[in-house]
What we know:
Residues 1-16 form the signal peptide. This protein has 138 residues and is an all-alpha fold.
Amino acid sequence: MRTAILLVAVVFIACAKRDGNQKFKACCARQKTADKECKRKFCDFNAINQNNMLHFLNMCSPRGETAKLMWDCASSRHDHLECCKKKNVLPSCMQYCESSHSVPPDYLNHLVCLQNFDAIRDCFRDHLEKNPNIFGDN
């Protein structure tokens, strides 16, 4: 009987899926060259928002490829244009939704996009709720 209960528990744990935020965190954990402090502070959809995005970029952009690697984890390098359109993201900010490349480097030229960041972030999270992260983690 104990063996059967243990087997059921193992199967349940193995089949349990991560949510989008857990997949984001798992992806960041695999980014070994990304700055540890930036990962600790910002690899969490609940910790990044339009009010602290400049802080993230100012802190993490100078730290090698950290901002790029974390953006890749958040965005899944996926094209989120349709989702962003549904969430009424400004046309001039759509380049942040089309994430199959990387984070646009000239973010200071697009400060108006900060008001749309929460919508963009929600598109990233919604995608990860239903899909594996860039490393295939479910």
